Amino acid sequence: MKHLRHLLRRSGWLRADKRSNDQVQRGQKPTRRLSSEALERRELLAGDFAAAHNYFLANDVDNNMRVTPMDALTVINHLNRNGGNSSEVGQGEEIKAFVDVNGDNRVTAADALSVINTLNRMGEGAGEPLLEVQLSARDGSSAELVRDSNGAYNVAVGQVFELEVGYLDLREDKVFTLPTGTPGQTVDVRFRQGVFQLVADIGVSGATNAPSLITPIIAETQQIKIGQQIDDPTQTLALEVTLTSATGQVSTNTARIAATDFTADPTGTLTAALETLEDANGLFLDAGTTVQVTRLPSADPDDFFLQVRFGGNDAIGVNQPTIRVQPVISIPGVGEFPYNAAAVTNQEFRTDNVLQGVDSSGTAIGQRYDIDYESRSLPNPNGGSFEFLNNRPAIGSFDPNTADPAEVFNDIGGLGPVIAGGVPEANGGDEDTLDNVFDALSIPVFINAPVQGLTFEVTPGEDSNGESFLIYGFLEEPDEQGNDNSRPVPLDQVRFDADARFVINATVDGAPVTPTVSVAVSPAAVNEDGNNALNYTFTRTGATTDALTVDYTVSGTATSGTDFTALSGTLTIPAGQASATVSVDPTDDDTVEPDETIVLTVTDTASYDVGASATATGTITNDDVATVTPVVTVAVNPAAVNEDGSGTLIYTFTRSGATTDALAVSYTVGGTATSGTDFTALSGTVTIPAGQSSATVSVNPTDDSVVEPDETIILTITDTATYDVGAAGSATGTITDDDTATATPVVTVTVNPTAVNEDGSGALVYTFARTGATTNALAVTYTVSGTATSGTDFTALSGTVTIPAGQSSVTLSVNPTDDSVVEPDETIILTITDTATYDVGAAGAATGTITNDDTAPVTPVVTVAVAPSAVNEDGSGTLVYTFTRTGATTSDLTVNYTVSGTATSGSDFTALSGSVTIPAGQSSATVSVNPTDDTVVEPNETIILTVVDTASYDVGAAAAATGTITNDDQVVVNPGTISLSPATLSVGEGGAFATFTVTRTGGSDGAVSVVFATSNGTAISGADYTGKTETVTFADGDSATKTITVSIIDDTVDEPNETFNVTISGATGGAVLGASASAVTIIDNDPTDPGTGSTVAGSIFVDEVENLNEVIKSGGSVAPFRDGIKDAGESGLSGVRVELRTASGELVATAFTDMNGSYRFTGVTQGSYRIHFGVSTANTFLSGSNHVPVTVGASGSNVAATNLPVLGLSASMSNLDILASSYLRGNTDAASASNNGRRGGSVALDASGNQIFFMAAEGFDNVDYSELLLNANRDAAILTIVDGTEIKTALLDENDFVISRDGTALQFFGGVEELGFVSTSNPLTSQGFSQAAIDALFSRAAGIANSN
Question: What residue stretches are annotated with the Calx-beta domain (predicted)?
Fold first, then answer.
């Protein structure tokens, strides 16, 4: 089913100078509407006009729908027949044409001139445009979408906008006054008059599969026709309504409508019936689906022709269940039967374009579901607006699969099908007055995928008569054939220009896409000769609707204006094209030069972004050739020869290029060899003969007997104008010296062994060795050093040693001198002294060591340790301290020690002597310490023995040992018993305090404490007494009685005696509880009302908007209305604390609202009061204060309901559905238990997790009261309900509920049956709940249960 609806537009029409674009503020999102839309109305004016003036087309004198020279000639002929004179209309020649062109009721030459001027402006024979067709994109409030700098619209994917087709009336717009026929009365009449029927196509192009990118807003419509026979008051008739799904599932119940109710309100009763039908899961229709029932005109006006439109976000594209209506008749005493006299027919326009039904042969009928629209200006027989839904191609259709992209929207009609007599008659008009028509239509659509440059364009369509446009002017009396003066408009008088199309872009977020411009060059290089050009192509992305000017800079090594013609720096990409080219032709020259570049770089501007390829480089290749200068290099081979002249150094000079002529090459001679001495002097010039590319220079060394380093001969080419010097511009040859000289010996010294003992059993042998000839003896001088003393530690040395002739080495032995001195090892270092007769080698010194072999006496080291480290005080164990020495054990060793620690010598243990002797032959001795037993309770005590340092021994690291005497005596502790008294207490309401005592008996050891706390019974903290929770503390040894008082609040309310409770709990320090509870009775002291008193009652509830549909349809111009009365469908807030206070603010009584949000105070005495509701703007939207005044009359008087209607709930409460929906999608157990969130409830909480109010969903039937308490961790909750006199509790964990981030709103899943409630009076739990809060919760529940 392709079902498009139209939007009711602004009243009035557009001026001929075209309407200005309505601007949408940046950041404002157009309203997305999915409801039925209607067409815009244009007002018509009525009046009588001069018969000689063509109000339809002023210059069309002969009324043939054209402005031609014949029109001017007709006026001229009329003037000629009247002698060329002007005349009043109606005087002289009979008027046979519309010769009064300017409408002044006269025929003059000015009328002919007007036609001639029109022809001159438009061209002879041209038809004057009467219409300009416009197409625009608009939001739900009729404001045109903002265009970007390129004139395109930009929307987000899925954003709904409206295709609006309208027109401009291009005829003259003039108002003049005519008499009405009543003396003294006139009427203003517009010269421009009439409206147009518009039949057009809308095409979609600019992208691949462009039509498939468009999705219209489509939902299902069904039509039901019920015969007039149902309206028979003489019969007992009714209608039974059911729903059947596409799979054949039928609603589990049947809605029954009495015929009398149906005929009185057919649309309302059918709407109500559909909303009550159910299936196995609840309501048959989805929660997000709405129904709108409208009565349509029928061929027989007494039949009931109803149209049902399904709406809402959940209805788009959904095949809805089929509505079945069965009339029935009840015959008293007989039974009930189908009533077929009232025939029922129905057809279903589904989203799959199938029209349900069968033809006479039983074959299914398939038919397109075409565009329909509604009008709020045409009457509906049943009240409200009139709707056209003829389901005929004349209205128009949507076909994304059409073969012609220009007819995606085909034959869209601005008035619908033309029927005999024109459009339906309007209220208050006669049958020939056309004053309710349309001048624009709109189709809500959205784009379903990102796209750029999508183009919509309106073109002429055709109605069933083959016409595209009709003009309806003012209607005169019909002629004999019944024709009016409507005229078809020739297409050549309808203007289609840029306003009849637009371009739209769709992105994910709706932001405009800035085009990106890049540049590339092809070919990349051309020769300088100009045969080819460098083509730089600038390409843009995105829409190509408009021309785009691109700026660029020119750089590179080529010179603008010299190497190529200078460029402008600007390029325009034409509309409709994605790229444009700049061609660059090189300027040819004959200069030999490097290749040169031309670089074009895109400049960033506000109208586009620069792409990744922002620069393109083209190259001009040099094609000029210059004369080549030869390049000369030199090389030598061999690179070295001996000095003896047996070889020759040959230097080869080589040239490149042509060899036509001989080439003289100059060179210089350098190097370390001496010219004329080491070799024959050279000329410095060599000639490369013609025809050859090289020549050589030979150098022979001059031999000598001088020992000298190798020497070099370097020939270096000299640069001249006739050649260039190459990279190898020099060559180096080497003369290798072949003479030898006498060698100087090198002397070294070593020692072996490197060390000997001091006792002289071994000698240090130092060996002096020489290199070279051994022909002669060689005297070597040395020095003696080291740590050993010459003449004391060893025999003094001479400082000279001689290596004999014929030997290469000699030795020198050094024997140590023995002593008994304990000393470090000592060294003897012999170092060779350098002289003219030898050189000193690398081993110029040798070190020998005399190892000390004397020893000294060793001082013993004494340490102490204890084992075991601790013994009991009872003497059953001994602390054994062991003193241990190192070294020799030949003699006795007396060790001294000190005694310290926390134990007392002589009291806790036997006093010690302070010394111990380690006997000869032993390395240790022990000292045993036995504790002295006692009965004193004391800390463990230590005995520390510490070694004292003396001359006969040293003290080791373990210089002290600590033994511990472990106390084995115990103390008896008795913290005592703590009790509360009295167990019961009665106190008068006028008394200031109730007094309690807390005592400690049976012991006072240690500090102990208990928590004293009050809790409500029938008395309420803050109203009847001041609640108190405090800690009572007893210090160590303290057994004094503690006294605590609780303030009693006196009021003036006559009420029963009331009770509250006092407990002590949570004993610490080992104390136990004795009597721990007290029941307190407050004796009322107020006189009894002589009457029965009055009842004050009311409720707190969410007050729904009564006229919501009107507010939505008005776009906000109609103010919402709430009646302040709790209706059946409005949700009450339960569990709200409601206080009755006097006018001065004194608390009289407290109540809590029940599951319907209701409360009640009884026995209220006469006076002025205020009702205070325990909600605030933090959790609800209030229209005023949460304090409501109330006046109570004499006893038994009626008090008006005191309600607090709230406008809505806080954001946290309102958003619970979203939070719950997200949670349930991932938690199938909770979803199943709560019927997808339908069973359960929502709770508003304060910062401590206490309930402010409770809103029940399904699953809490017959429950009188419900309250939820959340723990401090927000992961568990106690849910308590009161069912009659029974209190039941369920403990919820974090899987049973979701909570808002700020902790002020909670939704739980499941009703009474699913959550496992059990009967209890006060559950004790340790899951993060305050016991005081639990006590208060159950006190309130008990009060409500007791009152039931």
Answer: 506-603, 616-718, 731-833, 846-948, 961-1065
User: How many CB atoms are located within 10 Å of the residue 764 CB?
Assistant: 25
What single DSSP character describes residue 716? E
H, E, C per residue of 432-496: CCCCCEEEEEEEEEEECCCEEEEEEEEEECCCCCCCCEEEECCCCCCCCCCCCCCEECCHHHEEC
Give Rg (Cα) of the chain: 60
Helix (H) or strand (E) holding 65: none
52 Cβ contact partners less than 8 Å away, ≥ 6 residues apart = 89, 95, 97, 98, 99, 100, 105, 107
Cβ–Cβ < 8 Å for 64, 454: no
For tokens 């081979």, the residue is 637
HSE, CB side, 13 Å, CA atoms: give it for residue 911.
2
Measure the CA–CA gap between 970 and 503, rounded to whole angstroms.
99
Q: For residues 1070 and 1061, what is the distance between their CA atoms, to the nearest angstrom?
A: 25
Name residue 493's amino acid: Q
pLDDT at 388 over 80: no
Residue identified by tokens 């529940």 is 1341
The per-residue pLDDT for 218 is 65
DSSP code of 438? E
Reading across the β-sheet that carries 800-803, which strands appear in turn? 755-757, 845-851, 826-832, 778-785, 800-803
Does the pLDDT of residue 866 top 90, yes or no?
yes
Dist CA 270 CA 645 (whole Å): 134
Backbone angles phi, psi at 971, to 5 degrees: -110, 140
Distances (CA, A) of 5 to 349, 355, 377, 387, 460: 14, 18, 16, 11, 20
Closest CA to 1324 of 1291, 1286, 1346, 1283: 1291
Predicted confidence band of residue 14 (pLDDT cuts 50, 70, 90):
very low
Between residues 365 and 214, which one has the greater pLDDT?
214
- The residues pairing with 311 across neighbouring beta strands, listed in sequence order, are 290
From CA 488, how far away is CA 466, in angstroms rounded? Answer: 10
Note whether 813 and 764 are within 8 A (CB): yes
Is the pLDDT at 135 greater than 90? The verdict is: no
The span from the CA of 436 to the CA of 432, in Å, is 12
CA distance 100 to 698: 124
Query: Number of C-alpha atoms within 13 angstroms, CB side, residue 888?
Result: 7
Q: What is the rounded distance in angstroms from the CA atom of residue 620 to the CA atom of residue 529? A: 9
**Total residues found in the chain within this entry:** 1348
d(CA 255, CA 273) in angstroms, rounded, equals 5
Longest dimension (CA), the chain: 175
Cα-flanking dihedrals φ and ψ of residue 729, to 5°? -90, -5
Cβ atoms of 237 and 326 closer than 8 Å: no
Q: pLDDT tens for residues 762-779?
A: 899 999 999 988 889 999
Tokens read off for 981: 């008294």
For residue 752, give the nearest of 743, 764, 762 by alpha carbon.
764
Tell me the C-alpha to C-alpha distance, in Å, between residue 773 and each of 746, 809, 1155.
10, 12, 130
**Cβ 942 vs Cβ 902: under 8 Å:** yes
Q: How far apart are CA 434 and CA 1181, in angstroms?
A: 49
Joined together, the tokens standing for residue 516 give 């990106």
Higher pLDDT, 1172 or 21: 1172
Positive or negative, the CA dihedral 1144, 1146, 1149, 1153 is positive
Do the Cβ atoms of 764 and 828 come closer than 8 Å? Answer: yes
Place of tokens 């506000």: 606
Residue tagged 């006060």 (tokens): 1322
What is the distance between the alpha carbons of residues 1286 and 1152, in angstroms, rounded to a whole number?
17
Summarize pLDDT for 924-982 with one digit per residue, the tens. Answer: 999 999 999 888 888 999 999 999 999 999 999 999 999 999 988 777 788 999 999 99
Two tokens, residue 297: 């005109």
pLDDT higher than 80, residue 372: no
Q: What three-state secondary structure class fits 199?
A: strand
Summarised one tens digit per residue, pLDDT across range 1074-1108 is 999 999 988 877 765 555 678 889 999 888 888 77
